[in-house]
Amino acid sequence: MTPHGNPEFPGESTPAGSANEGSRAAAASASSTPATSTTESHSHSQWPLWEVFVRSSRGLSHVHAGSLHAPDAAMALRNARDLYTRRNEGVSIWVVPADAISASDPDAKGSFFESPQGKDYRHATYYTKSEGVKHL
Amino acid sequence: MTTANSGNMEHDTDFAHEGHGDISVGVSGAGASGDGSASATRITPGNALRPEDIALEVRRGTAKPSEDVAEYALRLGDDALILAQRLGHWISRAPELEEDVALGNIALDQLGHARSFLTYAGGAWDKSEDDLAYFRREHEFRSAHLFEQPNGDFAVTIARQLVVSYYQYALYSRLMQSADPTLAAIAAKAVKEVDYHRDHSAQWVLRLAGGTEESRRRMIQGLRLVWPYVEEIFEDDELTTRLAERGVAALPSSLRQEFDNRIAETLAEAGLDVPDVPQSLGGGRAGRHSEHLGYILAEMQVLAREYPGASW
Question: Which pTM does this prediction carry?
């Protein structure tokens, strides 16, 4: 064992030596996908992805801050706290499984978002104030 | 101490007067927290007790620990310092990147507590936190054996974290009522952070114990490895007895019941038994350490000793 107590090379003689790399697999499989075979557990099955939303203070809405990996929702919240509120950024966090989010197609920008352009009449400023109407 | 803005005593002096540079402007200035200029990317240091504030009080003479109090603060500071050094070694080695950051955060919290306690302790002997951290020898360290135990695999580290965080939570909760205002202030800041450490370790104990056969086996083994060092942290001696009588310290043995109850609760939830193993001899409070501490100190102190007064 090295002076740090952490093995530098997985699989080295001592029981603790072989433990570090194994614990990656153990920790990963403890949560999500069960490791199917020993060879696969070494390739380190990944935790699912979560999207993180942080509210910076009361009255503001949650804003997308980034994403992270976590075995489950409870750990995702904790990881989000550690990753995205280290500098006092938040008073509330939401985490959402990334695959629960349906996104618009970036290639469909034209048909999706350009239609409102030029439709001035959808803005209040398009209209002139009628005479005699108060409180406008 | 091991942060980029640490330095020798002269530098500490500068920090106390001028703060940390850019970031601390917000501490005394307007808009440090909770004002209308909030935004999604707001970054503020917030308001909290910093080691620099304690250094300033010590230098002004408004906080002056007695020999006994300093010795007690040294114990708590050394516990936190050695654990911080151990945990820091996980960075880039944890099961996942996210866990790297989590363990790194906990290490930094512990380092912060260590800096506060050592700064305060140094007030009795005209020493800085750096003098105490980097220029004491192994037998002068007062940390308990638990804190210098090797990281082992992830489960061993989580087992050590479980014991440490439950112990420190009980300790700091009590120290908040200490008759010594500086110790009480440090504890009040630390207890919230340790509360999170408690949650972190408990969450992982549940997951490792309830995960695969392999993870459960490792969790049980991890608990068995660290449990011999539990007894020592709850041992009373003359110093803690004297200080507890004056309402300054929390008598270690008086924390045991709460610790046992909460540990039993968490382990029961995880379907694990409290390990029944023989206890080690201890001796850390008297400067008698295991073979591990020397290696930790060698790595931690080499830069400061090789280049005295270095700052970066």
Answer: 0.79
